[in-house]
Design goal:
512 residues, alpha/beta, Glutamyl-tRNA Synthetase, domain 3, Glutamyl-tRNA Synthetase, domain 2, Helicase, Ruva Protein, domain 3, 4 domains, 3-stranded parallel beta sheet, 19 helices, 15 strands, 11% strand, binds glutamic acid, tRNA binding, EC 6.1.1.17, Glutamate--tRNA ligase
């Protein structure tokens, strides 16, 4: 058989926002397609009309745009295997349902939901299969005439797949190896419903994977139980020799390790489980997203890539292109991957460090402007240079850096009590006079002159610097003092010093 071009697909059902686990599935598909020079198809599986949520498809597309995961073909991208929305492929599925019926590989069943419920009550662990189908109301137990008559009378029916018992079903999984299941444990799954004239997920999924020439099915572990049925469907249609290879990805687990990751874990521990913020059209509920929380898309990709796969080396930082080279689906783990969201924050920090000061400044500048400060990009970049290693997110810069742009409005009482001594007014007045006398206000010159003065006077350096910091920053934290004063410049530094010398002693007397 000729080597087929690798073709994979991401096939979400538009039932709500895309879960972060779905993003990882799409990412692994993308990496697999790219590294094999293959195609990546975007298909919408919307045959379950009851669960359809408006806006979900657009949300999913926007998520991938933000993340930089590109498709070659599919809904909104076009291609030769369309339409790519299953709701637009009804006639195609009907033809294949008919084929299975004609070949006796599927049958029509009229059992109502009430009748099925009654059976479930009557028989423990009831399943519709070779043993029970003979007791049910279907085309195998009634005459063709009766069956045709019921359909002609408009009675609703479903089409069920007729699973032969006693067969070993082999699923070839790139992560799990060969998975073998006895057909006896499978039930005669519904493939089509007359009520909405739509196929179920299973039929549409297989027909489309075949028609779209999919070679590898990479999807979440929750689909592993469906895989034997999918293999049998491929065989029933006579497509066994183009059966895709499967890869069922490990589950994403709660950060604590036990149980499946859920939205509630995110709410409880304060991390998003969706790529973008999601506004539920029905309830109006808003769920946080990685984008709006200030994550870089590269950081999200890098974080997700390592949840369930590892390169077998110490390397942790990977660009998307590096991932394409390094990724190996067969190295994915079978065991679930703990969703260590702190690691996601760590990645974001690393990406802040790896980006240039200019890039971060571009992102920080609008925040500075929104706080009513008119500063040049150049000076904002200087601040970013001094401070970016202290934050995980760009939005954390403002609270940490506002003193560079705005003089303190108040002085932290605890720091005042601890750092402002009886002699601080005198020392700060002398310091102000010294700084006033400097023509060269560079960091180096200030440092040299101030150090000499401290030494000549026999002052404690800590006393001087702590009080000085309080006057310029208003709190006891920040970068190097002369970094700050050099940035503020002579005029602003002196202004803040003089004001503090005046105001802080009044605070002390009132607080005593
Ligand atoms: N529509 C399914 C989902 O929502 C696709 C599963 C598969 O990839 O086969 O995940």
């Amino acid at each position: 058989m000729a080597e087929r071009k690798v073709r994979v697909r991401f096939a979400p059902s538009p039932t709500g926002p895309l879960h972060i686990g779905g993003v990882r599935t799409a990412l692994y598909n993308y990496l697999f397609a790219r590294q094999h020079g293959g195609d990546f198809v975007f298909r919408i599986e919307d045959t379950d009309t009851n669960r359809f949520v408006p806006g979900a498809e657009a949300y999913i597309l926007e998520s991938f745009k933000w993340l930089g995961i590109q498709f070659d073909e599919g809904v909104s991208f076009g291609g030769e295997h369309g339409p790519y929305r299953q709701s637009e492929r009804r006639d195609i599925y009907k033809k294949y349902v008919k084929q299975l019926l004609e070949e006796g590989k599927a049958y029509i069943a009229f059992d109502t939901p009430e009748e099925l419920d009654a059976k479930r009550k009557e028989i423990d662990n009831f399943q519709y299969d070779a043993h029970t189908r003979t007791q049910m109301r279907n085309s195998l137990t009634m005459s063709k005439e009766e069956c045709d008559q019921r359909i002609a009378d408009g009675e609703q029916f479903v089409v069920r797949f007729k699973i032969e018992p006693g067969v070993e079903v082999h699923v070839q999984d790139m992560i799990r190896g060969e998975v073998i299941v006895k057909s006896d444990i499978l039930d005669d799954k519904v493939l089509y419903k007359s009520a909405d004239e739509l196929p179920t997920y299973h039929l549409a999924n297989i027909v489309d994977d075949h028609l779209m020439e999919i070679t590898h099915v990479i999807r979440g572990e929750e689909w592993l139980p469906s895989a034997p049925l999918h293999v049998l469907l491929y065989q029933a249609f006579g497509w066994a020799d183009t059966m895709p290879l499967f890869a069922h990805l490990p589950l994403l687990l709660k950060p604590e390790g036990k149980g499946k990751l859920s939205k509630r874990d995110g709410d409880r521990l304060g991390f998003p489980v969706f790529p973008l913020e999601w506004h539920d059209p029905k309830s109006g509920e808003v769920s946080s997203g990685y984008r709006e929380s200030g994550y870089f898309p590269e950081a999200v990709i890098n974080f997700l890539a390592l949840l369930g796969w590892n390169p077998g080396t110490d390397q942790e930082l990977f660009s998307l292109d590096e991932l394409v080279d390094a990724f190996d689906i067969t190295r994915c783990s079978k065991a679930g991957a703990k969703f260590d969201y702190q690691k996601g924050i760590w990645f974001n920090h690393e990406y802040i460090l790896s980006k240039s000061d200019d890039e971060i400044a571009e992102l920080f500048a609008p925040i500075v402007a929104n706080n009513g400060v008119d500063e040049s990009l150049e000076r904002i970049t200087q601040v970013v240079h001094m401070m970016k290693d202290r934050v995980d997110f760009v939005k954390e810069l403002w609270p940490l850096c506002s003193f560079f742009f705005v003089a303190p409005l108040e002085y932290d009482p605890k720091t005042v009590r601890k750092r402002w001594k009886d002699y601080s007014v005198q020392q700060m007045t002398e310091l102000a006079a010294l700084l006033e006398s400097l023509d060269d206000f560079s960091l180096e010159n200030q440092e040299e002159k101030v150090m000499k003065w401290v030494e000549d006077k026999g002052y404690k350096l800590g006393d001087v610097m702590n009080a000085f910091r309080l006057t310029l920053v208003g709190i006891g934290k920040g970068p190097g003092m002369f970094d700050i004063s050099a940035f503020l410049g002579k005029e602003e530094t002196l202004k803040r010093l003089h004001k503090a010398i005046e105001v802080i002693p009044t605070l002390q007397s009132t607080s005593e």
